[in-house]
């Protein structure tokens, strides 16, 4: 029997030795040989394994090596040197780790790295102006950003809030200097800010969000709606709504209300007083519309126009006439009859169009299309634009009063089923009216860290949430021009169905006197500068202002 050797076991190996063997087999390396301290580490002989969970999107990318002779990347420029709307481009954003020096309560705004690159000239206005064009769309949210803080808009005193409401009700114009030295200590500025946030609403149901109404079923679902199954309550709500709607129209006709909106669950109507948007008569714009709604308006004797359909029709007619003239010039015999040379005109009579079936004796075997199908065929251009911005319908003059009665008596104005069943449309106005409730937009100021390349810069922001009407947007920019010393940027979020209200109707007459009309509208409750802006002819078309930047008291915008 052999003598026992200390540390030796013939039947099994110790755990350290077993782990060492497994490690060697897995790596397929040579026997373990410890290197002396300070020696260079040995390179791996086997290639690195590929991560089975990686993809092209999340795989780490190695930075490209700069070749000899290639210039070094330019130094980081200041964030204000680039147009503001570049900050919100989604492409090229780097979601890297945040700096260790930031506090936990500080918001970080990640910006693209190429802030020094200019925006393409096609997307940027070629010239700066003192005022931006009138925007008749309703904004749902505004985000103002500046290098100066917005502390003057926080924690208004009770007296300042009361003065702002009183100035709004009495239509007192604010008078601010070009630059306010101490905005936080300026009572005039804070009262004017409160005044610019006021709007009027009907109906007023605090537990429901009454704007926007199009596509709002999810937000309304699950809320208490006691009128959904109560017809008597529905009739009471509609009766009260009809009184408020009529009151607004009477104020509009008397030029004591400049405009107002009627927001239903299917479409939105904008009523504008005579003298606004270059029109000398009252106008009503409806968008989006359907063939059924337009047919019901025709049956009520309401005369209206479809600007985009008529424009498309006239363009096609001009193109066809031009092609026909070209073809006739090349081939004179085209389009002429061999007998008298007169151009053959197709008949629009539906009965004559199927007379050839009787001549062949198969009129009973072939099914004729009904009158509705024939009518839809003729109106295919109008039907194709249903539920689209091109379905914009315009009513002018005395027909707007007929439209008022039509909307009051229209049963499809209110949803019959769904979360919005029995809920009257929302009325939005810049001035008080019968049954209207005073509401204010929600304002909140924030401080954020904007990441520009490898550094962080302080950016102060002011957020406005709610149905921002055109007059409020203009008043807020006038305030910020003075408070932020003519340097700020803004992102505007538009309620898309209302963007088409910026269409130029082309109804400016030669006898239209802007001065006389402006004098009549001075009592409508709007600021004189706001009234001048809204009196201009719309130039944005189907678009609306998305980005706004002011620098040195000059505006630049991007639709």
UniProtKB/TrEMBL annotation:
Signal peptide: none annotated. It comes from the Eukaryota. One of its GO terms (cellular component) is nucleus. Residues 1-79, 313-353 are annotated as: Disordered. It is found in: Nucleus. Residues 340-353 have a biased composition (Acidic residues). The keyword Transport does not apply. Residues 39-55 have a biased composition (Low complexity). The keyword tRNA-binding does not apply. One of its GO terms (biological process) is nuclear DNA replication. Keywords: Developmental protein, Nucleus. Residues 328-339 have a biased composition (Basic and acidic residues). PANTHER family: DOWNSTREAM NEIGHBOR OF SON, PROTEIN DOWNSTREAM NEIGHBOR OF SON. Belongs to the DONSON family. This is DONS protein. The lineage of its organism: Eukaryota, Metazoa, Chordata, Craniata, Vertebrata.
């Amino acid at each position: 029997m052999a003598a026992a050797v200390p540390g030796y076991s013939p039947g099994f190996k110790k755990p350290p030795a077993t782990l060492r063997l497994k490690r060697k087999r897995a790596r397929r390396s040579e026997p373990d040989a410890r290197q002396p301290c300070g020696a260079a580490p040995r390179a791996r002989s086997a290639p690195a394994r590929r991560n089975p969970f990686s993809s092209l999107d999340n795989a780490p990318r190695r930075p490209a090596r700069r070749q000899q002779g290639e210039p070094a990347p330019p130094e980081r420029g200041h964030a204000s040197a680039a147009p503001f709307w570049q900050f919100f481009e989604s492409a090229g954003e780097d979601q890297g780790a945040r700096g260790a020096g930031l506090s936990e309560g500080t918001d970080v705004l990640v910006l693209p790295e190429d802030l020094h690159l200019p925006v393409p000239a096609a997307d940027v206005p070629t010239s700066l102006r003192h005022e931006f064009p009138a925007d008749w769309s309703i904004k749902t949210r505004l985000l103002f950003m500046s290098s100066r803080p917005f502390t003057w808009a926080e924690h208004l005193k009770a007296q300042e809030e009361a003065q702002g409401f009183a100035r709004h009700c009495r239509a007192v114009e604010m008078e601010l200097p070009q630059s306010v030295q101490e905005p936080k200590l300026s009572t005039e500025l804070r009262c004017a800010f409160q005044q610019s946030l006021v709007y009027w609403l009907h109906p007023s149901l605090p537990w429901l969000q009454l704007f926007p109404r199009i596509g709002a079923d999810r937000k309304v679902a699950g809320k208490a709606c006691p009128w959904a199954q109560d017809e008597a309550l529905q009739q009471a709500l509609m009766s009260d709504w009809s009184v408020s709607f009529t009151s607004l129209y009477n104020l509009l006709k008397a030029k004591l209300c400049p405009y107002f909106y009627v927001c239903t669950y299917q479409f939105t109507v904008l009523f504008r007083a005579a003298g606004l948007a270059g029109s000398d008569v009252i106008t009503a714009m409806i968008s989006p519309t359907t063939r059924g709604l337009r047919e019901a308006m025709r049956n009520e004797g309401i005369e209206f126009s479809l600007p985009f359909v008529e424009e498309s029709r006239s363009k096609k007619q001009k193109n066809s006439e031009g092609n026909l003239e070209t073809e006739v010039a090349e081939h004179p015999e085209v389009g002429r009859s061999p007998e008298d040379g007169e151009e053959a005109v197709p008949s629009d009579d539906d009965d004559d169009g199927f007379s050839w079936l009787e001549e062949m004796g198969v009129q009973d075997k072939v099914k004729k299309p009904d009158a509705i199908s024939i009518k839809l065929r003729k109106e295919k251009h109008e039907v194709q634009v249903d539920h689209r911005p091109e379905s914009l319908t315009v009513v002018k003059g005395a027909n707007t009063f007929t439209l008022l009665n039509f909307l009051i008596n229209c049963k499809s104005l209110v949803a019959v089923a769904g979360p919005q069943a029995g809920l009257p449309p929302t009325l939005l106005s810049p001035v008080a009216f019968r049954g209207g409730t005073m509401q204010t937009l929600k304002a909140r100021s924030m401080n954020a860290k904007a990441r520009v390349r490898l550094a962080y810069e302080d950016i102060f922001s002011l957020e406005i949430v709610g149905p921002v009407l055109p007059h409020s947007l203009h008043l807020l920019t006038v305030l910020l021009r003075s408070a932020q010393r003519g340097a700020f940027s803004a992102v505007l979020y538009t309620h898309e169905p209302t963007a088409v209200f910026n269409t130029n109707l082309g109804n400016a007459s030669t006898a239209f006197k802007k001065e006389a009309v402006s004098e009549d509208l001075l009592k409508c409750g709007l600021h004189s500068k706001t009234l001048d802006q809204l009196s201009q002819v719309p130039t944005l078309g189907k678009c609306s202002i998305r980005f706004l930047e002011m620098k040195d008291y000059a505006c630049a915008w991007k639709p």
